[in-house]
Amino acid sequence: MTLRRFCLLWLCVVLVSCQSHDEAPAQAPASTATASADRGTLSQARWQGFGDMRFGMDEASFRKAWSGELKGGAEVGSDCAMYAPVWAKPPFELTFMLEHGHFVRYDVRGGKETAPGGGKVGMAKADVMALYAGKVKQWAYKYDAAASVFRVDGESGAVLIFDIGADGKVKAWRVGVPPQIDYVEGCS
Q: Which alpha helices (H) appear in the chain, and where do they start and end?
């Protein structure tokens, strides 16, 4: 390999490794991504957290692991804060919850991420039941009896919750630790 080719290759590696979380990635870096067996897509969603962010991290460690800008925060007098990447537009397709200064949950409302185990926004209720066979606890949604909630207990005490609309499709999902995973309205 010539010196010129080596330098070009090295420059490409450096530029790729400098990618910031500020931009919406087309897919997650291979080092932090998990593959969905049925879809072959990459996702940073995992049972222990999101990408390099792990549940229980304090806010300083969380922000360092994210390495991009976030918008949002806590209401006055609240110990609970919701953050979204600066590139996200309402309704936010990805949000992070911190309570008492620690990362406890993330919520997904868009189709770019795949939940641990393979679930996705837009997926049919029956497909979610098949993916998580024998692990799903189900009940009616708090505000709509025709909608439902699926709960899947995961690894390390983490929980995955799917919000299934009246049409039988996944509207959103979230992963986190109790009790924050069970807050229906986020920090509200």
A: 3-17, 59-66, 125-131
Backbone CA torsion sign across 163, 168, 171, 172:
positive
pLDDT digits (tens, 9 = 90+) for 32-66: 344 333 344 468 999 999 999 999 999 999 999 99
DSSP tag of 79: S
Which structural domain, as residue segments, surrounds residue 57? 27-182
Main-chain phi, psi angles of 38, to 5 degrees: -85, -20
Is residue 174 within 8 A of residue 181, CB to CB? The reply is: yes
* Number of domain units in the chain: 1
> Rounded to an integer, what distance in angstroms lies between the CA atom of residue 24 and that of residue 111?
13
Looking at the domain assignment, is residue 168 inside a domain? yes
pTM: 0.78
